[in-house]
Amino acid sequence: MDKYIAFAFFLMSLVSCKGQIENAANTNTQDEIIEKYLKNGAWNHHYLTKEWNEWINKGIQADSTIAYLWQQKALPFWKQKKYSLAIKYYDKAVKYDRQRWLSRLAFLKCVFAKDYEGALTDIKTYIKEYGTILEQDHSLEFYMGLCYLQLNQFDKAFETLNQNVKAQEIEHGTDWVHYLDRYYLAIAYYEQSDYVNANSELDKVLKQYPGFSDAQYYKSICLNYLGKKEEAMKIADIGKSNYHMGKTFNEDSNIYEMYPYQITWQWNVLESSIIK
């Protein structure tokens, strides 16, 4: 009997070795395809050129299961605001490498496609399956809060953003928290008509990023609601001046997309509101 058991283990080891060899060979093949069609092909052209797409299509024809090729194929469509196509191809990337690309897709749906319900679904799914992660220097909970704000679910937005800031303060200290995390927490206070706490949080934002015009915009509104009209008008004037000097959001994606509660044309509305 011992001989049969030993022989069975021998056969199992052969099958295991064969599988490992096949997986290694497949990985090598995929690396070669990426090298040929991306590094030595598409990447020699700008992503908005036809050549970019042609090279990637050749790579996909060679192996349609390489997630990175689908992610790269989707890239131009995000920048061209062709979101349906971008999501269609990005879904393929998620299909073949879920852990790497699902959280990124959630970020893109939130900031680029403005698909807030879709982004929330992806964020919750990712956190459930893999835990939280950073995307563009912010946690997934940050983007979850943005989605709730944009869906006017202000109680959920506040709960999510407040917990996000407190968790960072506990782990890293108060000075470590990104100014936009605090900015959106201030917005959540503001949307719930808690102007005292909104103003307090905006002060923290402005201490970290002096001259941040968007924070000054909302600070002026809060001060106005608190009956401090003169101070509100003064902050509004300073904020508008800072806006024209470009002191606004400085996220990498800003050259392509506006972020929620980013202020542009609203300055004229603010002036008339405070004067009244």
State the domain count.
Answer: 3
Output the number of helix runs: 13
Q: Helical content, roughly?
A: over 70%
- Described by the principal axes of the CA atoms, the overall outline is elongated
**Spans with pLDDT under 50 lasting ≥5 residues?**
6-11, 17-25
Percent strand: under 5%
**N-to-C series of helices and strands:** HHHHHHEEHHHHHHH
Assembly state: single chain
Derived from helix and strand composition plus strand pairing, the structural class reads: mainly alpha
Number of strands: 2
The end-to-end span amounts to 95 Å
* Mean pLDDT across residues: 91
Question: What strand order characterises the main sheet?
Answer: 1-2
Main pleated sheet: 2 strands, antiparallel
Radius of gyration, in angstroms, nearest whole number: 25 Å
Structure, briefly:
The chain is mainly α and 276 residues long. It has helices at residues 2-39, 50-62, 67-79, 83-96, 98-113, 116-130, 140-150, 154-172, 179-191, 195-208, 213-225, 229-244, 266-275; strands at residues 134-135, 138-139.
